Amino acid sequence: MKYSVLGILHYKDLHGYRIREHLERHFGFVWSINPGQIYPVLKSLVDEGLIAIVGINQNENKGPYRKLYTITEAGRAEFQRWLKESPKKTMVVRDPFLTRFIFFGYGDIENSLKLINEQIAIYEEQLIYRKANLPRWSKQSQYPRMIAELGLSLNTMYLEWLKRAREEIAGHKSELPGAQG
Amino acid sequence: MKYSVLGILHYKDLHGYRIREHLERHFGFVWSINPGQIYPVLKSLVDEGLIAIVGINQNENKGPYRKLYTITEAGRAEFQRWLKESPKKTMVVRDPFLTRFIFFGYGDIENSLKLINEQIAIYEEQLIYRKANLPRWSKQSQYPRMIAELGLSLNTMYLEWLKRAREEIAGHKSELPGAQG
DNA sequence: TCTACCATGTAATCTGTTACATGATTGC
DNA sequence: GCAATCATGTAACAGATTACATGGTAGA
To answer: Which pTM does this prediction carry?
Structure first.
């Protein structure tokens, strides 16, 4: 999304690949920018005059071919306007596992438990990664650090819920073999 | 999404408007189906033979004009296949407030606090609604109830985080007037 | 040399969103 | 009678996803 790009260029001049990598690595749970999306977005931002190319590294210098982008004054103004807006929509969680979970009553319990265990494994790994990365945020980056803390809380809460769900479903299985709720 | 429609038709034969309403009301935080999306989806499901129209209420009978859909055997089979699949993607939270929050360091603190307070008001109201609706889920609908519990946990956790963020930012304001983190 | 990754880009397709249009019904 | 809501639908647009294509660089 274009405002994320404008936001990140406040911090540093970057090229497309790095912008995407940065967003994905640090805030991937809040949004994800697609590799096939970042270059068209950069192009349209240049066309609108909100960002500009400050340099193109061709192989005269060493390092790969890439374009370095910077934010313009118009870009900063547009970003400030956006930042002040009250968001019109509330939080939505997109998760292909949860859409299945709702309908687990129409499937078989063994398969449900298998999928739940897969999710637990994924989020336990993610939790380790997130705990390890929290101290990296300095006092300078107060807001990104708070977002990282939110990610950690979400991760912890979700894991607890998954484990409660697993216990409840496993218990249900032994009580009423074959039956589904 | 088509599998949500197939899932919900396991529970009951419904018409388009009710399908959307049901999804929106009970699981709106996990997905939202757009009003301009449900009818094309129903049409393509009929074309694929996964659902079928069981009746059209024209104004011979009382009540408004509407089409009642049911799931076919092919639809059940396709749904079962989907339900067994391991989801390829992990959870993503979409929230226009959080995308702004990350960049609050580049805006002014007064505005940030204003937006945070708006969010707190929204989610406090939502929390009351969710607490009130939890007991409605019977033992029969175990999985939807667990989803509702997840919604409640998420809501509670998010509110706590918003309030911690507010305190931290408000404190920061009085310590270092004009400065931003 | 070969693999993995860095880096940019396009095309086709699928979803999602907004806005509109129509008309019936229900309750005040 | 009027407003709100029920109900179905379309059109235009915006955003996301997948797949592909190209070529450079770094390190085993």
So the answer is: 0.91
